[in-house]
């Protein structure tokens, strides 16, 4: 890794208009599926455009009461060996406290997204945010998802619209991007998040997603994502609440050509 001589850390430069699509090897979209009564965008996709699924790591709520997508994501990461090709995110309904039907709904979303994107279902992750106790409006989602997949793009606007689509009580979309250099190659990290209250250590009432174009082993990337959460999100308290859907997922595409070996 290319580090400064006086510090054992990488030097990062913040990007103007940084967002989830800033890193190479990713596309995204935010769109309206009709899940929110407001008519605002309520569906988001993040897709790795490389030939192989991205390294994937996740950190989730420690609440005893968890939404179906949380446990399903944990299972998917284990099944895939910490690899993922896409994340499907809906806002409006949290799909929490929805019983067996909530599980089935989330698994049906995975199957549909996998068929539309053309990947094995084990490489699809899902997240939901919104009203607890409400099932996803599956008729609306399944009707809209083919169109939404066709709208995927890698532009800044695509990234910003993706961030707006996951908002609930947020007043503004939250996006960021940084670049650094590893092994003589430029590496970019992009991100987006939702959540403006009920924030407490060990996750919060939030969803957060990170993309990076570095190459890394999936298990090692999982450790890195978990360590980063410990030093950042899990240090924040707003009003002492965690929730059912708290999720942080990081994807690393390898598209920069820079590879990080374990322990470096």
Describe the structure in your own words.
Helices cover 26% and strands 27% of the residues. With 264 residues, the protein is of the alpha+beta class. The chain has a single domain (13-252), classed as L-amino peptidase D-ALA esterase/amidase (4-Layer Sandwich). The strands form 2 sheets. A 7-stranded mixed β-sheet has the order 1-8-9-10-11-4-5. Strands 2-3-6-7 form a 4-stranded mixed β-sheet. Helix 2 runs parallel beside helix 3. The longest helix has 19 residues, at 99-117. Residues 1-7 have low confidence and may be disordered. One of its GO terms (molecular function) is L-glutamate N-acetyltransferase activity, acting on acetyl-L-ornithine as donor.
What key attributes describe this structure?
seven-stranded mixed beta sheet; globular; four-stranded mixed beta sheet; about 260 residues; about 25% helix; L-amino peptidase D-ALA esterase/amidase; amino-acid biosynthesis; alpha+beta; multifunctional enzyme; L-glutamate N-acetyltransferase activity, acting on acetyl-L-ornithine as donor; transferase; autocatalytic cleavage; disordered N terminus
Q: What portion of residues is helical? A: 25-40%
> CATH topology, which one?
L-amino peptidase D-ALA esterase/amidase
CATH superfamily: L-amino peptidase D-ALA esterase/amidase
Helix and strand composition category = alpha+beta
Count up the helices: 5
Strand order of the largest sheet: 1-8-9-10-11-4-5
Total count of strands:
11
Please tell me how large the radius of gyration is: 17 Å
CATH class: Alpha Beta
- Assign an overall shape: globular
Portion of residues in beta strands equals 25-35%
CATH hierarchy: architecture: 4-Layer Sandwich
Mean pLDDT: 92
Written as H for each helix and E for each strand, in order along the chain, the element string is EEEEHEEHEHHEEEHE
Can you tell me the residue ranges where pLDDT is under 50 for at least 5 consecutive residues? 1-7
Number of domains: 1
